[in-house]
Fold this sequence. Notes:
heterotetramer; A: about 80 residues; alpha+beta; 5-stranded mixed beta sheet; two-stranded antiparallel ribbon; 2 helices; 7 strands; about 15% helix; C: about 150 residues; Aldehyde Oxidoreductase, domain 3; 4-stranded mixed beta sheet
Amino acid sequence: MGDNDQGFVRVLLFAALRDQAGWGERRIPVSPADTLTALELWKTLDLGPWSSSWRVAINQVLADPQSPVRAGDELAFLPPFTGG
Amino acid sequence: MGDNDQGFVRVLLFAALRDQAGWGERRIPVSPADTLTALELWKTLDLGPWSSSWRVAINQVLADPQSPVRAGDELAFLPPFTGG
Amino acid sequence: MESSNLGNADLASCVEVVIHAQPFDPWMALERWLEGAPASAMFLGRVRPEDHQGRALEALELAHYPGMCEQRIRADAHRLRDHHGADRVLVLHRVGRLPPGEPIVLVAVTADRRGPAQRCCAAVLEALKHDAPFWKREWRAGQGTWLCANTPL
Amino acid sequence: MESSNLGNADLASCVEVVIHAQPFDPWMALERWLEGAPASAMFLGRVRPEDHQGRALEALELAHYPGMCEQRIRADAHRLRDHHGADRVLVLHRVGRLPPGEPIVLVAVTADRRGPAQRCCAAVLEALKHDAPFWKREWRAGQGTWLCANTPL
C-alpha cells in the first residue's frame, strides 16, 4: 500500500453488493488508534444488514468478519462466488 | 457369412496368439453334424495349452469357451485387451 | 478494474492461470500448452443458452476480484496438483460479457496416468467454483440478475 | 485386415466412434465435434516415451479386431451415456505403429452439467481399456513385445 493509503482502509464491493451500494471502491479514514473489525466497518457504511452468506477478504485473503482492520488494509466484501 | 463359408468355421487369432501361431486367419472345415465347442476347436489347432486369461468371441460377440461353434461362424481367440 | 489487462501467464511453471477479458480459443490454447503428456484430462465450460429459470439468455456477465482471484486459483491448483500426483495444470477463465456458447472456463491437467489427470482436473474445477472470487450475472431483455449460487455438480 | 480402411463415423448420432489407421489431430476433431455444449469433459492419451520397464521406447504398435472393436465401443458408449445422463460421446482411437508422444485415444463427452460429462468420460475410457479388443506391442531395438495388461488407473 502506498503512502496515500496511510490513515485509510480501502474498501471494495463486488457484484450484487456493488450494485446495491452504487459504488465499488472507497477510502474510509481510520485513526491508527482504532481497533475496528471488518463487520464494524461494514456497519459504518450504512449498506443494510450483514448477510452470513457473504465473505470478507482482508488484503486479498479470506478473513473472519470479526477480524480487525487497520489503516493501509484493503478490505473486500464478497457475495457468494459463482464462477467456473 | 457367404456361401463360401458353409462347411467351415472362420478362425481368427490376434496379437501374441497370432505371432505364436504364425497365422491370423484360417478356415477350418466342420461337418453340419458336429457339436464342437470353441475350446475343443482350439485343441484341434495344435497351438498349445489354453490360458484362462484369453477370451473367445463367436461372430464378434464374447462367448464362453464352452459355447458350441457351427459351420458359418467366425470364431476369434483373444489375448487380454490392452487398448485405451 | 474489471476490464483491465488480466493476462498472468506463468509459462515456465507447472501451473498456468490466465483470466481473459476477451474470448479465448480453447483448442489453440491446448495445442500450445499440452505438449506430449501421456495423459491429459480437460474440461471446457461454455455459456448455456438459457438462464437459471430456463428462459432464453441474452448474455452472461462474469466479474472477478483481480489479484485475489488469480492467487486463489494458483494456490488451489498447486495444492491439488501435489495431492493428486499430477504434472501440470492450466486454468483459463473468462470475465466480461459473454454470449451463449462462448467458452467460460478451460481446465487441463497432465499426468503420467489417466487417474491422477482426471481426478485433479475435476478437483481444480470444483475449487474454481467454490473458492475463487468470480460472480455471474445473467442478462435478459436488458435486465441483469446476479446469481446467488453455483450450478449443482 | 488390420490396416484396412477403418473410418466409421456416425455423425448424426449421439455417439461417434472412429478407429484411425493414420494420425488424428485431437484439436481439429474437438473443434469440429463439440459445438457449443455447456459442459465438455475430454481425455487425451498419448504414447509414453518409455516402455513398461522404463526404457526408451521406439514405437508403440496398436492392433485391433475390426468390426467387433467399433461395435463394443459404440455399445459401451451408448450404455454409459444413458447411465450418466450425458449428451454426446466421441471416441477416436489409433491403430498401427505410433512414435512416442503421438495421440492414441481421445474421449470427449458433452452434457448439460460438469458432473455427468466428467463421470461419463472417465467411464467410457475405462470401458475402452477393459472391453474393447485392442492390443499394444512395444517396440525397442527392433524387437516387439505384446503387453499382457493395461496400465493401472
